[in-house]
Amino acid sequence: MRKLWKLRATWTMAVALAFCTSTAMPAQTKAPATPGARKSAFDKLTLEAYLRRMQLWIPEILVKIDDPKPSPYPQFKMVDVHISYGAATKDYLYYVSNDGQEILEGSVHDINQNPFKLELDKIKTELEPSFGAPGAPIVLVLFSDFQCPLCKEEAKMLREKIPAVFPNDVRVYFKDFPLEAIHPWAKMASIGGRCVFRQNPETFWSYHDWMYEHQGDMTAENLKSKILEFGKEKNLDTLQLSRCLDTKATEGDVDKEIANGRTLQIDATPTMFLNGRRLVGNTPWQNLEQIIKIELGYQKTAKDAGEKCCEVTIPSPLSKP
């Protein structure tokens, strides 16, 4: 089932804080109470207790709260909150008013800016595998997992439909986001894909298609031998490929992709960003096609008006300011 990105903006006032900390946390982690004192969301124990109550986080969930940092909005600081339960992790972003008395959860939009600017500023596509028209007006960035069944369906749709229906209008970038907590061989498959990409960038897309096609045959135990079989079929240097897999030489590349996904608060695959617009889950083609056509119409209007919108670029000395 497709997950829809929902914008939520929840204001929480200091008066509410006074009633929401008594039962959420073990006694040793509660913030000390001072009669008559106003609580502050910049106090990490207070904020954790409040969020545990609001989000129904059970005691077994570990919570890490970062120090506040400047936000695009002068009235607020940004506070990143990271939770974990075993191998599963999830990240949240909250905006805390400068006096520590209000919390904003969700996204804030400046009417004078692209509504997807915050996402576009975070998405990194440099040296990523891609296909489609260079410089296309639509940039689709896909975070995916080779062991995810919905990702398999999404990958097949994109690889077939985008070149056939929008050959000059869409550029697709692939980014690894293996969900290690539930998919035991997904990260190793991503490492393998990056090994192939390093050796022969064009062959990556054959690996991509092949990995999803044979997804049901893969296990953590046979993955390496399967990847080497693929490499032999494609005339890759299998000795180099084997060494790359054994040493996990490309794990750092995959970890950068995962870190990029976490800055975008991704917690499900597939997740796509179409000119910055977040689309979570397996988006049916009829829906995606309509979204692309609407965005193309907007891009033409913006271009005619002299506006430059939604472009993901790669730094180059040839780029003009």
Mean pLDDT: 84
Helical segment tally?
10
Uncertain regions spanning at least 5 consecutive residues: 1-31, 304-321
Number of strands: 11
Helix percentage: 25-40%
Order of helices and strands: EHHEEEEEHEEHEHHHHHEEH
Fraction in beta strands: 15-25%
Radius of gyration, whole Å: 22 Å
Largest sheet: 6 strands, antiparallel
N-to-C terminal Cα separation, in Å?
43 Å
| Shape type | globular
Protein structure class? alpha+beta
Entry keywords:
five-stranded mixed beta sheet, 321 residues, 36% helix, disordered C terminus, six-stranded antiparallel beta sheet, alpha+beta, 11 strands, disordered N terminus, single chain
Describe the structure.
Helices cover 36% and strands 18% of the residues. The chain has helices spanning 14-17, 44-55, 117-122, 149-165, 186-199, 204-213, 223-233, 238-247, 251-263, 285-304; strands at 10-12, 62-65, 69-70, 76-85, 88-97, 103-105, 130-132, 138-144, 170-176, 271-274, 277-280. Strands 1, 2, 3, 4, 5 and 6 form a 6-stranded antiparallel β-sheet that branches. Strands 7-9-8-10-11 form a 5-stranded mixed β-sheet. It starts with 9 loop residues before the first strand and ends in a 17-residue tail after the last helix.
